[in-house]
Amino acid sequence: MKINRCTRCGNFYTSDGDVCPNCIIKDNQELSTFRNYLEQNQAETSLNNVSLKTGISQNNLTRFLGYDGFKQFGKNFK
Fold first, then answer.
1. Which is it for the CA torsion 52, 56, 59, 61, positive or negative?
2. Which of 2, 9, 14, 65 is least buried, going by the fewest C-beta atoms within 10 A?
3. What is the pLDDT of residue 53?
4. pTM of this prediction?
């Protein structure tokens, strides 16, 4: 059994993924919000602005940009 550390809350857990079972719903909601925001605001260049407008922390935005579906947007941000 592999023990992981949640990238959102820091708690330890034994299931797969980047986040613990307690954080998965919030993480999925923020991923959806971020995806929708990017689709509507493709010229955005600041993670700080995206964070302020969406309420998603810059740490989580940076983590999301590392996901396969978001990597193409990473070059748009400073």
1. negative
2. 2
3. 93
4. 0.83
